[in-house]
Amino acid sequence: ISMEVFTKAVVFHDRKDLPEKPVLLTFDDGFRSQYEYVFPLLKEAHIPATFFVLSDGHEPIYMTKAMIKEMAASPYVTIADHTRRHPRLTRLSVSARDAQIAGSKTDLEALIGKPVKAFAYPYGDWNNQVAKEVSADGYDLAFGIRLGSEHDASSRWQLRRIPVTNGWDMANICERFLRPRDVTKKPASGI
User: What's the predicted TM-score (pTM) here?
Assistant: First the structure.
């Protein structure tokens, strides 16, 4: 599903566009390889995905501003924020965090000409103060790196994900996604 559909479901409780088993694909850091290898596959297969990019990642391993802008023009891509330079946010002063969080949002919105409403904490590094600042800066939700897949409005500033990392084969991925759930647990009200 797209980030727009996910946000409607989690934040605004509008689940009419959700399929039975929704999957939100997210990619962190804005690596050039995501542009070179993943983006063409997603376009060809018409699969939506969200890319959390750095607005000031100018090393050769990161996407260029032109690449980010091209991806943002695709109907299958949501560009989301991952700060300017990928710092550990809880170790920064309030003003330095503001430059990384709000500054990056401003940079990306100017670059792509669209609102940037989703955020991912670099290294999953956050606390309640950082989450308040992300909220105050106009984001709708924020993602961490903790394992999980059920969400609702109460978790919108620390959304969980199921990571798939380099070197995994399909057996690893299937095991992660197809692991039987504990049916004795009360079902969550979220997605």
Answer: 0.89
